[in-house]
Amino acid sequence: MSHPLKTFHPPVRVLMGPGPSDVSARVLLAQARPTIGHLDPAFQDLMEEVKGGLARLFHAPEHACVPLPGPGTCAMEAGIMNMLEPGDVAVVAVNGVFGGRMADMAERAGAEVVRVEQAWGQPVDPEKVEAALWARGAKVLAFVHAETSTGVMSDPGPLCALAREHGAMTIVDCVTSLGGIPVNAAEWRADVIYAGTQKCLSAPPGLAPFAISPRALEAVLARKTKPRTWLYDLRLLMSYWGEGKGGRAYHHTAPVNAVYGLHEAMVAYFEEGEAAAFARHQKTHEQLASGLAALGLDFHVAREHRLPQLNTVIVPEGIDEAKVRGHLLEHFSLEIGAGLGPLKGKVWRIGLMGGSASERHVMICLAALGDALASQGSNVSVRDALKAASR
Ligand SMILES: *Cc1c(COP(=O)(O)O)cnc(C)c1O
Fold first, then answer.
1. 3-state secondary structure of 184
2. Which residues lie across from 130 on neighbouring strands?
3. CB 284 within 8 Å of CB 355
4. I want to staple 203 with a disulfide (CB 3.0 to 4.6 A). Which of 76, 171, 247, 265 is the partner?
5. Protein residue whose Cα sits closest to atom 6 of ligand 1
6. Residue 244 has pLDDT above 90, yes or no
7. Ligand 1 touching residue 79 (CB < 6 A)
8. Whole-number percent of the chain with pLDDT over 70
9. Gap from CA of 57 to ligand 1 centroid (Å)
10. Are residues 239 and 381 in the same domain?
């Protein structure tokens, strides 16, 4: 049997899962502009703008900032593989999927990993982290700012301060936080900090903003062994990005058009303004929360630790959660996320990230959820939910 290839026309979706978020036409159009060579002087100028834009986004004027080729996970891997050598001790806070992924990577780097476990739905506890740092001269403390698997925010400032007190450097995962809530590498004095494009920046997936402090880069340059990655070896990468001496050298071919997309997403972001973007995420979160309450739905996370851009909602008793997601996709072309790990089948994850953090998205989501619940026999009023959200 033959499988003829034909042009793919994706369905038009409303993306309210844990990423990707809705991408604007201006960013999609930017990505459709002509491909040029990655060593073309015009592209190198663009690279410089992108590096400057990332430094502004991360609030990292002293850090070396680059967009790595790959998804958010590649920046995590770059951070872990470069900062850790076999035999190093790493303290990794694990309060969800992504902390667990960092710990797994640190083991693969050959490090001795001390996991600081936390219940899924709780923020990282600085006291537990401090106890782990005391116990073992750690080289690195790694943790997640915005844990997308649970919808919890941890406070990076105190955690980075603790690490410094104990002589450790920090790796902070800001994949879901960057663009949605304040991220400030300089204020936190974070060493390695990274993100993704497809969450609150609303560019297509495929690039990972990455920043490293001067002292961390120095430590990477002073390694005794080569990092267990070639593509993400920062010593090679930094010369490609023009951060080393001797100008740009070929290392890999940058995903040129993806860089156009990230660049345009940053242009749009700075046009709106950071404060306005944060306020929009917060406001739409509150609208969604009011509407969900009117539908009788509860959050998994205590109010003070909730991420506005990732809402973890408890599946009510007697409701088939997968069927609800299927209903949303089939009748509203709306995507929300399922629970992961211990939260599988127990929660939905509703993203209000970047371009998906709008009142229109909140209303569509509430209408669709209400309809899906009603179709399973729940006695809910969509009108009440919409009224609550617009109040
Ligand atoms: C999405 C995410 C990642 C991984 O990003 P990918 O682009 O899926 O590789 C890492 N950490 C957190 C907190 C995330 O939300």
1. coil
2. none
3. no
4. 265
5. 72
6. no
7. no
8. 98
9. 17
10. no
How many angstroms separate the CA atoms of 143 and 85, rounded?
Answer: 18
Q: Domain check: are 324 and 282 in the same one? A: yes
Straight-line distance from the first to the last Cα atom of the chain, in angstroms, rounded to the nearest whole number: 57
Predicted model pTM: 0.97
- Please give the Cα distance from 340 to 216 (Å, whole number): 33
172 shares a domain with 294: no
Judge if 68 and 136 occupy the same domain: yes
CA distance 315 to 301: 13
Measured distance CA(284)–CA(275) in Å, rounded: 14
Q: Is 173 in the pocket of ligand 1 (CB under 6 A)?
A: yes
Residue 220 sits in a domain of what CATH number? 3.40.640.10
User: Of 269, 285, 308, which residue constitutes the final position of a domain?
Assistant: 269
Decide whether any atom of ligand 1 lies within 6 Å of the 73 Cβ.
yes
Asked, for residue 18, whether it belongs to a domain, the answer is: no
If one residue of 77, 148, 202, 349 were mutated to test the ligand 1 pocket, choosing by the most ligand atoms within 8 A of its CB, it would be 148
For residues 169 and 222, give the distance between their C-alpha atoms in angstroms, rounded to a whole number: 15
Number of domains in the chain: 2
For 172-226, the pLDDT digits (tens) are 999 999 999 999 999 999 999 999 999 999 999 999 999 999 999 999 999 999 9
User: Do 33 and 156 lie in a common domain?
Assistant: yes
| Domain extent at residue 355 | 273-390
Top mutation candidate among 68, 80, 95, 98 for ligand 1, by most atoms within 8 Å of CB: 98
How many angstroms separate the alpha carbon of residue 10 from the centre of ligand 1? 23
CA distance 324 to 161: 43
pLDDT digits (tens, 9 = 90+) for 7-23: 999 999 999 999 999 99
Residues 64 and 183 grouped into a single domain: yes
Q: How far away, in angstroms, is 371 Cα from ligand 1 center?
A: 30
